[in-house]
Structure formats: structure tokens, C-alpha cells
Design brief:
By secondary structure, the protein is of the alpha+beta class. It has two domains: 3-104, Arc Repressor Mutant, subunit A; 129-277, Regulatory factor, effector binding domain (Multidrug-efflux Transporter 1 Regulator Bmrr, Chain A, Alpha-Beta Barrel). It has helices spanning 3-16, 24-30, 35-46, 50-68, 73-79, 85-96, 100-104, 151-164, 166-169, 225-240, and strands at residues 129-134, 137-147, 175-179, 187-195, 207-211, 214-222, 246-248, 252-257, 268-277. A hairpin with a 7-residue loop joins β3 and β4 (187-195). The termini are close together. Strands 1, 2, 3, 4, 5, 6, 7, 8 and 9 form a nine-stranded antiparallel sheet that branches. The model has no long low-confidence stretch (mean pLDDT 89). The radius of gyration is 22 Å and the shape is elongated.
């Protein structure tokens, strides 16, 4: 998948629908990827979430219209998706630093131009990865549903919840797996657990996720696990996917937490993503 082109096409779609009621699923569907992977890719490549981008662009355009026109505040508020002048004024003031009426009287505005994503080369960043063929496998996991927009903060809390539960803690929790197969859905499953072959039976609170046979790109992350994993995801989306001969299969990914102290500087973890070679 040409990630740079895909994200720019998504930006074009958002720009063409600034005054329409569009959802994350609508944007993702317009570029034929899942809402989860679009949310992740856009946020890492643009530095803000799709929702933040839309909100800031709408408030930027609303400010320009307020300063240069005679439309009522409520009309502009409704045009850009706000149901009341109060909610619009609050968001407007937070973004611009001044209320709509102050802007009408000449207070300065903030303006955010539309984004264009490009590949830039900053230096010799090294990524260690390997391509491996894995047979189909079953994973034993404790699963919870998440929304793409809020998962970044909720998944770390899910890990804390897992390890605070004495029953769950008896199952080796060294794998984190994301399963997102429906393009139109913003909901995905995230599970914590291990290979099913590590445990006899299916304990209460756990289930089996079957992973088909794939080729996988396995990225080595070195350092305290939370920071190392996040840094590698940034590199995957910003440096590897835009130029590689492989494309991501947007159905699963696995984070593999190897034995050791996860807070140590030399701790090793892995990000594993299923891929196809671009034809």
C-alpha cells in the first residue's frame, strides 16, 4: 500500500467534506483501509489524530468566515457541525484564543493550512527486521473491544488491568494482539495472552483467536518496552511502509514481549505485522 498517497487522498476527502457530518469510518472507507489502521497511520504520519485535523481545519475556516463576512455566529457554527453557539464559542475560543465576537471586532486569528504528507530523509535511522513465513496458529487471549479513537490511552490501562487480576496473571501474558478485519468499523479487538499450545484448555475469561498463515515482518525493538514499541511503530509508518516493497495486511498485528526486565535499556520486544509483497 502506498501510505503517503493513501493519507494524502484521505486529507483530500476531509477537505472536500469540512462542512459535512463525516465519521472516521467514512474517511477510512474512502481510501479502502480499516478505521483502526487509518487512525494509527494518520496520527503517526501527521502528528495529530484525524478528529483533531478536522476540528482544527473547520475552526480555522470558520474564523476566516467570521472575520470576512456578515453571517451570524450560529449559522457558521451549524455549518461546521456545532449544534449550539455555546459549544461553538467554547471550541472556537480554545483554538483561536478569542471568542467569535472578539474576532468580529478585529482580534487576531489562528490559521491552520491543509496538510500534505511527504517523505523526508532526516538521517541514518536503523531498523532491524526480518521477513518470516509463519504457519497458521492459535492464540489464547483475554480480549476486550476498543474504539480506534480512544485506544491509545485505553490499551495500556488494559495491560494494567490484566496484571492486577490474579486469575489472568496465571496465563503467560507475553503477546498483545490486535484483530481488525472490518473496514467500516471503528471497533477492534485487542487481546493479551500467549500461544494456545502453552496452556491446557481455555480458562474462564479467555478465548482462542485463530491466525491464518502469513508472511510476517518482525521488527526488533530495544529499550523500555512502552517507549521502544511506540518509537518503532512511528518508524514503521513514517519510514518503512512508505518506501518498502511490502504492503501491510490490515487484519492483525502482534506485539511480542520477550523475557527480561521490560524497563531495562537493553530490553528486547518485537512488533510483528502480516505483509504481502507488492506486485
Amino acid at each position: 500500500m502506498e501510505w503517503v498517497k493513501t493519507i494524502n487522498n484521505a486529507i483530500e476527502y476531509m477537505e472536500n467534506h469540512l462542512t459535512d457530518d463525516i465519521t472516521l469510518s467514512d474517511i477510512a472507507e474512502s481510501v479502502y483501509i480499516s478505521a483502526f489502521h487509518f487512525q494509527r497511520a494518520f496520527s503517526m504520519m501527521a502528528g495529530i489524530s484525524p478528529a483533531e485535523y478536522l476540528r482544527n481545519r473547520r475552526l480555522s475556516q470558520a474564523g476566516a468566515e467570521l472575520a470576512n463576512g456578515n453571517e451570524r455566529v450560529i449559522d457558521i457554527a451549524m455549518k461546521y457541525g456545532y449544534e449550539s453557539s455555546e459549544s461553538f464559542t467554547k471550541a472556537f475560543s480554545r483554538f483561536h484564543g478569542f471568542s467569535p465576537m472578539q474576532v468580529r471586532k478585529g482580534s487576531p486569528l489562528k490559521y491552520m493550512n491543509r496538510y500534505t504528507i511527504r517523505i523526508t530523509i532526516d538521517g541514518g535511522s536503523i531498523m532491524e527486521y526480518k521477513i518470516e513465513k509463519w504457519e497458521a496458529m492459535d492464540l489464547l487471549v483475554h480480549v476486550k473491544n476498543f474504539h480506534a479513537e480512544t485506544s491509545e490511552n485505553e490499551i495500556p490501562a488494559f495491560w494494567d488491568e490484566y496484571y492486577s487480576n490474579e486469575e489472568y496473571r496465571r496465563i503467560p501474558g507475553y503477546l498483545g494482539i490486535c484483530a481488525q478485519r472490518k473496514t467500516e468499523s471503528t471497533v477492534f479487538q485487542y487481546g493479551i495472552g500467549c500461544k494456545a499450545s502453552d496452556v491446557d484448555g481455555v480458562p474462564e475469561g479467555f478465548e482462542i483467536i485463530h491466525i491464518p498463515e502469513y508472511s510476517w515482518a518482525v521488527f526488533r525493538c530495544v529499550g523500555p518496552s512502552s517507549k521502544a514499541i511506540q518509537a518503532m511503530w512511528d518508524k514503521i509508518y513514517n519510514e518503512w511502509l512508505p518506501i518498502t516493497e511490502y504492503e501491510l495486511i490490515p487484519e492483525y498485528y502482534i506485539e511480542n514481549y520477550l523475557p527480561g526486565n521490560p524497563t531495562a535499556k537493553d530490553y528486547v520486544s518485537e512488533i510483528c505485522i502480516p505483509i504481502n509483497k507488492v506486485q
